From TrEMBL, chains A, B, C, D:
The keyword Oxidoreductase applies. Belongs to the Gfo/Idh/MocA family. SUPFAM superfamilies: Glyceraldehyde-3-phosphate dehydrogenase-like, C-terminal domain (SSF55347), NAD(P)-binding Rossmann-fold domains (SSF51735). This is Inositol 2-dehydrogenase. It comes from the Bacteria. One of its GO terms (molecular function) is oxidoreductase activity. Residues 1-118 form the Gfo/Idh/MocA-like oxidoreductase N-terminal domain. Residues 126-247 form the GFO/IDH/MocA-like oxidoreductase domain. Keywords: Oxidoreductase.
Length: 332, 332, 332, 332
């Protein structure tokens, strides 16, 4: 497959290099609003640096990877599927659920594959946990817990454009909760505070938050987020069920342990997502190309992207109103 | 100090034997509605089996330990302090907050010490964590997480009289959350389901539950409970703060680990509270007698008992109404 | 059973208090060359402080616990069994194997039970490992590894009288290796160095040592010792076999773990043997009294004491000559 | 740098693909006695499949990687350095120390760089441990322990040509012990048994072995090996010193942990060396190319290869004679 990459920033670079490493895909073109970024990645991968339009209008390109800023995602998805291309797009499709819905209608009409980059589903540890969960190892699912803490908060300027913590950061955890619960949440309650950086609070957002969700059959999900963790990028999941518990956790920088009069010391955990999820990014692209080649719809789908967004919207509202919010994802 | 024990059941027996092991306290009398229970413990400890009234009216007894059924606690506390005795009482004072308040007024009038048996504060691991938290090791407190899962659900008959999961089981976690937060919660939101035993649901209670609480300054507490955990009595706390994280966890039955083609296997965790909290029960009584001898008010106090009950009441209400409940513990 | 205690030092005190806690044994008399030590323990236990001779000649005493200095053990064992008493004696019977053999002949003639205090066999973790090993969980035994490190070296004056590291410290590990191997070693090779304290080297002893042993069928045991470990009392065993591995390790002071920019930190391990082996000392006495009451020979026996001593003698010789030493324990 | 690869088997393939991933090296030619192996790797890397002679006589090739069978190593090293090429050679240079010495004389005369593939030094965990050890974190080194267990024994036909366990398998651990001890061993004592596969014993080799070594200043190293571990490829190192302990261990297949009535279960450890040491192989080649480009002699050197071989020879002799063997590596 011939592949075009839209966006040559940090995450675009990861995907571009991962395409190069695949025997079944050929990265032919890279576009970025910053010409230097495109040129640099093109040089490293053997692709050409071109404009986004050139990629979209190049009939020989089978698939595009969209790694541009969020506010361009929906337009680019629509343009790409309309041009007959398979699309992999970084989360989220848009910060506005209505816009996502319109975009998905367009995608549906074209019948082209769209996959959303919820990379954590492809982490080998989390994927193994989910697979064992599905095989019944924990029995009936009762409580899903997701802990997600970034090493340090983003700049306030980023925060202001981000759609808020629930849409920007916790959206990954909403997707993970759905992935693990295997049943849609029907109710969302959220609490948030600005404890890490007062400027984040002044910008109207929170940096510390927790959510409770419940499904129709009574399964419970709890999520907590912080924009700062001194010991690294904290990424943990745990599922409690009728037969037992399954959990998967962090990866330390090395396995070295020291023991002295101060006790036993292990390394901080891997920091940050490029390192922690390196294998997940590879597996994610593998799933995309495998689905496209096999003529199957890739997962997570655009609808998965919409559902996570609806949960993030509900949490944002709950956090502001102080009241739980009812959602109806099965009709989304 | 001469000590009388009211209630010679499972927990009364623990406390009675712990009194015997102390050089500064002498267990002189044991009472129980079941004469055999009293006689058996009396024989094991060298105390006399007598009636509760005999203990309360014996002027030579300095302190009483109340380990009777919950519905007798408030009356016995009032009778004991009125008789001039220091009182240690198992949680809760009563299932009705109004009754607790009246009881505490009586206690206040007598000026006698009253300590409530929130044993987990005295677990050496949790106590060390709290002490290091207070010393600033995690910095400013941001998220307190408490996980508490019993090995197996109690009989439905017990559940019916228990006041419900939030008052019967999660009350320990409300106290732990207050102990760790170092600031009173102002809002409580609870979700509950009957997933473990349908009969518990038919009895109007839940067996799986989660709570979110927030303090005035924005600190967040999350608690989750299950009435069943196949791998033992699951008791974990974790505090995330500006400087890092402190957590304390379970104790496995032994340190033995096996490794085979199926992987590495460690023992289940200690099961159940008599084993897991054996050291906590000893340290708890030590705190009681040390406070009494030093003329200081013991902690956790009757007021701590009331505050945990108010949180449990709020969670019960939230779970039923589906709405968060505002509480005002500083005025309790 | 009525029990007399010879020796009211650190370890005698442990055993004395453990007797008091048993319903089936009554500590009636305590003797010590230091009258204050005897009086203090007598006061704490309700026993009488008397002379050793008084204990040995008191026909009502069924069992004696010998916790005196090593050079008195053999004489006291002989006197006690000759006086018709069951004997529990701290390791070793004597630093001289020939003296041990003579002592065991006397014991044999009287037919009285003699148990040697290799407490580590009774550690609940090590005992569980051995039991699972015997049940075949690791398959055929191939490599037994024992690591034993004291927190800090003893005074040189103690070292001079101790018989040397192999007889004083590693003797416990020789017994543990025999316990786990389930086949007698036939060859011993030892290396030792004075790396911790030069004065120990000047006194002709070593403070850091390692041993390799082999059994007739080819099983291998490796032991290493250090007289100093900054992180606590390091006590680990591991058995590798045809079906897998079983290991049991240290117990940290608490389960608290902190995470900061410096990484994840757990407590040092329990320090020292009185704390680490508290449960083992209780279980050891339980085995002694249970065997005596049941009319069975207690284990580890005097012969076990002799065999460990023979291995320690062989290691001492190997360390000095630089050559492996052949031993024949099956004929011991 | 232009690179030629001799040997396109399992390990040659790893190195070949790692060269391709480097921006500073270009894999131009691959040779293998099995034409299909060479052709397959050539196709995957864009290199040409040619004869070994063609690589050695191609003046444009700067460096060769030798991944052929052991009995060809010394000849190929000599031919390659004589042809002016930098050489990376898989361990060992030869099974005969005298042949290694002659080869190193030839290398020395040409002045060309030679690096030996002791890959474990480059494992990120072991490298970090060594670096922290060198920085003094454990203080003065006292006891070095290396445990190395393969998942399953090789075919007996392989064993017969292998030079024996000490030269074929434990040679890695001899190198690791030297790497960590930072002082040459002067004495070697070895025990070996055939416990895993009787056919290995009939072939005159052992499959289970342990070694003790001592340095001039009294540092102790203990190594143990098994040709079989049911739970994966067991690779552990531990260094005990005056200030504490440093250890580094295995990597489990995933971080998933389950908890049920049978206890807590983690995955087996990574199996086998291609997976466990994937990062080490990359870092190893990086060290080789970095040294070559910087005009520095790469490490581990041919002399390191010789010294590990001398220790393996000594262990083989000790295992056969039952006596310790003195070695003099500083004069090697």
């Amino acid at each position: 497959m011939k592949v075009g990459l839209l966006g040559a920033g940090r995450i675009g670079r990861i995907h571009g290099l991962n395409v190069v490493a695949r025997p079944d895909a050929h990265l032919v073109a890279v576009a970025d609003a910053m010409p230097d970024a495109a040129a640099s990645l093109a040089a490293a991968t053997g692709a050409k640096a071109v404009s986004a339009d050139a990629i979209l209008s190049d009939g020989s390109i089978d698939a595009v990877l969209i790694c541009t800023p969020t506010d361009t995602h929906a337009d680019l998805i629509e343009a790409a599927v309309s041009a007959g291309k398979a699309v992999f797009c970084e989360k989220p499709v848009d910060l506005d659920s209505a816009r996502i819905r319109r975009c998905l209608v367009t995608v549906e009409k074209t019948g082209k594959p769209l996959m959303i980059g919820f990379n954590r589903r492809f982490d080998p540890n989390f994927a193994a946990l989910e697979s064992r969960l599905r095989a019944g190892e924990a029995g009936a699912i009762e409580i899903v817990s997701v802990i997600s803490r970034d090493p340090s908060p983003p700049p306030v300027e980023y925060v202001k454009r981000s759609g808020g913590l629930f849409r920007d950061m916790m959206i990954h955890d909403f997707d993970m909760a759905r992935f693990l619960l295997a049943e849609e949440p029907v109710e969302v309650f959220a609490l948030g505070s600005a404890l890490v950086d007062p400027a984040i609070g002044q910008a109207g957002d929170v940096d510390t938050a927790a959510v409770l969700m419940k499904t129709a059959s009574g399964r419970i999900a709890q999520i907590s987020n912080s924009r700062r963790a001194t010991y690294g990028y904290d990424q943990r999941i745990e599922v409690h069920g009728s037969k037992g518990m399954l959990r998967a956790g962090n990866i330390h920088e090395t396995t070295v342990e020291s023991a002295t009069g101060q006790g036993f010391r292990a390394d901080p955990v891997q920091n940050f997502f490029l390192e922690r999820y390196a294998a997940a990014y590879r597996a994610e692209l593998d799933a995309f190309f495998t689905a496209c080649k096999g003529g199957k719809a890739p997962t997570p789908s655009g609808l998965d992207g919409l559902k996570a967004q609806i949960l993030a919207d509900a949490a944002t509202e709950s956090s502001k109103t102080g009241k739980p919010v009812t959602v109806s994802l099965t009709e989304a």
